[in-house]
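Annotators were shown the component list below and the corresponding predicted structure, then asked to write short factual statements about the assembly.
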Amino acid sequence: MTVRYLEDFAVGQTFRSGRMRVDRERIKTFAAEFDPQPFHLDEDAAKNTVFGGLAASGWHTTAMTMRLLVDGEFKPAGGILGFGFDELRWLAPVRPEDELQVESEVLEVRPSKPRPSHGHLKVRNTTFNQDGEAVQVFTGNLLVPCRPK
Amino acid sequence: MTVRYLEDFAVGQTFRSGRMRVDRERIKTFAAEFDPQPFHLDEDAAKNTVFGGLAASGWHTTAMTMRLLVDGEFKPAGGILGFGFDELRWLAPVRPEDELQVESEVLEVRPSKPRPSHGHLKVRNTTFNQDGEAVQVFTGNLLVPCRPK
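Structure shown to annotators:
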């Protein structure tokens, strides 16, 4: 894995993560702690909701996506330091036993005026399931250090 | 707590959550599972990073915010069903022992054309710490059922 400084990034570069299996019990325990709503907690209760069955909390999906990013080939020097992101969409439910993978595409690279030692990276992260269906997409805004002189 | 249908929401309404104490060990175990980077895992390693000390993963903050929302006075009928959100910003680090609270403000209420039984709500959710400092803000897009005829 190559660690990259701001100068090593260019618009259009893409990076892939490994894969993560979504555990049925972890969907429920994550929801019990952070998003205790019937469609994330219980198969039967979920049937009669818009999800039509048990689905992971969107915040569980963002968290799993982050883990895939940290372990993947996208390696900014100093770590993945997001100060926020633009539009996020949950496009399809994430189900027990789904296998998630993230693809990241660099959309923008620019120096930081207030902080000349760093720059900003805009990266679109799309999370796919095992059928190649996009389940989530968001564009992250990252702080990346410039190569030390 | 009043459960609200689309017709019960109006632009400018605000809702408050209860408070949640941020647990030091949970910062680390959440990070170990979902965002294993030094500034979220270890006090000493975090000192020499932009955070200047241990800070919760932003994804932990979003998850805690969701729990505060689910338990708070903002109660759309059918639950809090986000299909995504606009711009999210992490504005300040979340530290061990911080006490978080969320304020939600309704920005937009509109019927759904493809799904006449439901409508869309745009809600800005700001998470504050015990000093009244905003640590995170995002605008969620929610699906809310209309009042049954």
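Statements collected:
1. Chain B touches chain A through 34 residues (CB under 8 Å).
2. Chain B has a mean pLDDT of 95.
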